[in-house]
Design brief:
Length: 498
């Protein structure tokens, strides 16, 4: 019986070392996940020191852009050359970018170093997720991936708190340098306890396909993330993205070692995971980006109340992620994903009953339900995809699911942002930045009662339509779960090639 090299490596890992390897992967994913929220908290201080406010959006956009572009590339490289090598390469690039960001003399330099960070972060999430799949067998994999998925929820809570503490007591550069000890500890653990990658036959990366993918994704994400600033130029970028995608498909059909193997397009579980990734990514932005605005701007809540409301989503996510392994083994992938989809849709629909006179309890219940739905859906799609493919393409299969979630987040941000802007222009054509007027306590206090009520009602109605669009998207998570073949569940023994 021929055994795949990935399975040889799995068998070589001692059972007592697996929790240490899982810890290292969780540390590395926390490092990459927390980067956006911790930096966002520190940006006012950084802008005050370096200036360049007009470039603020690029500090975040370039990190997300380079990360999203490289996720599928690293996933394929992990299949071809080994997870261990790709993990160390990606983490080294990320830490180098982190150190350089702390020394940035201007915001322009910081944007360049953030791009380097993103190039490293693109490896960390897919490779760490694939590495855990190689170390744990299919039945154990669900529980391990549940812990790994919970990192995203924890980082959403810890990041802003860490950022606020650091800028209050240390120079802002520490928000970047705090990554270094975390990353080094993760690397040292894997150096000691993760066996080297097995011998592999020579491979050739599909450079043409990689180039077309990079051009297509970069053009699309740039158009989505910078649509307001680019205007009609965004349409040209979308056209370029479509053309590049067509060239990518043509390239993949003729190359002997495609970036996206044919098996990815024929596997129903992977299709379900990719569709689900887009949906949960887009739905997540409906609450992450706009619920705090509703709490502060419409309900008149404090930033702390908005933060604690959103934190309930981050609490529901890890709790559901850790519970998902039991539910998958007791029922099936399909049942677990559908349950997550129902929680996701239920929470999104609950946002539709919010009004200027409602309290925070409904918003918080909706946030927790959406977080629980995210935890169940995300973990189930990842585990079902990893268990449905041969180890030789596990990296790119995992990366494709993570990539579609990132793409969904960008698409959701653009679509929901456009929905809000169009509604505000329709209802308040003569009012400049009405949301900011409500969010700023000083400005809000100067408004007359009639003017405040008018602004509040108009912004509430505009955000209501944002929640309507988000709810419509979230409902699609249920049919996405139904795409998974019925009856499939984690196997009791690791699958091997015959």
């Amino acid at each position: 019986m021929a055994v795949n090299h990935s399975e040889v490596k799995t068998a070589a890992v001692k059972s007592s070392h697996r929790p240490l390897i899982l810890t290292a992967c969780m540390l590395s994913m926390f490092m990459a996940a927390v980067e956006v929220t911790i930096v966002a908290t520190a940006m006012p201080t950084i802008i005050g020191d370096l200036g360049g406010f007009s470039l603020l959006g690029w500090v975040f956009a370039v990190y997300l852009l380079t990360q999203a572009i490289t996720v599928p590339v690293y996933g394929r490289l992990a299949d071809l050359y080994g997870c261990r090598k790709m993990f160390f390469i990606g983490t080294t690039l990320f830490l180098l970018g982190s150190v350089l960001c702390g020394f940035a003399p201007s915001l322009g330099w910081m944007i360049g170093f953030r791009a380097l960070q993103g190039l490293g972060a693109g490896a960390i999430t897919p490779v760490a997720t694939t590495l855990i799949a190689n170390v744990y067998g299919p039945q154990e994999r669900a529980k391990a991936q549940g812990y790994l998925s919970s990192v995203w929820g924890v980082s959403a809570i810890v990041g802003p708190l860490m950022g606020a503490f650091i800028v209050s007591h240390f120079p802002w550069a520490v928000v970047f340098w705090v990554n270094v000890p975390i990353g080094l500890v993760a690397m040292m653990i894997l150096v000691k306890y993760l066996p080297p990658d097995g011998q592999r036959k020579p491979h050739t990366l599909d450079l043409a396909g990689t180039g077309y993918l990079t051009l297509s994704v970069a053009a699309l994400l740039l158009a989505l993330l910078q649509a307001e600033e680019l205007g009609y130029l965004a349409l040209a970028l979308v056209a370029l993205s479509v053309c590049s995608a067509w060239l990518l498909v043509r390239q993949e059909r003729k190359t002997p070692e495609p970036l996206f193997p044919l098996a990815l397009w024929q596997n129903k579980v992977i299709i379900a995971g990719n569709v689900g990734g887009v949906i949960i990514g887009a739905t997540m932005m409906g609450i992450s980006a706009f619920l705090p605005t509703y709490v502060q701007g419409v309900l008149g809540g404090t930033p702390l109340q908005a933060g604690t409301t959103l934190a309930l989503m981050s609490i529901g996510w890890p709790l559901a992620s850790m519970f998902s392994s039991r539910l998958m083994q007791a029922t099936s992938y399909r049942m677990t994903a559908v349950t997550g989809g129902l929680l996701l849709a239920g929470g999104s629909l609950a946002l539709l009953v919010l009004s200027p006179s409602s309290g925070l309890w409904m918003a918080r219940l909706a946030a927790f339900s959406i977080g629980a739905g995210m935890g169940l859906c995300n973990t189930t799609f990842i585990v079902s995809v990893q268990n449905s493919v041969e180890p030789a393409i596990r990296g790119i299969a995992t990366a494709s699911t993570l990539f579609t979630r990132m793409l969904g987040s960008a698409m959701g941000t653009a679509l929901l942002g456009a929905t809000l802007n169009l509604n505000l222009q329709y209802r308040l054509p003569q009012v400049s930045d009405p949301v900011q007027q409500l969010m700023d306590k000083a400005t809000r206090g100067t408004l007359e009662s009639s003017q405040l009520n008018m602004l509040t009602d108009s912004v509430a109605a505009s955000l209501h339509w944002v929640f309507v669009v988000s709810a419509v998207i979230s409902v699609l998570a249920v049919p996405a779960g139904l795409l998974i073949p019925s009856g499939d569940r984690p196997h009791s023994e690791p699958q091997r090639e015959n």
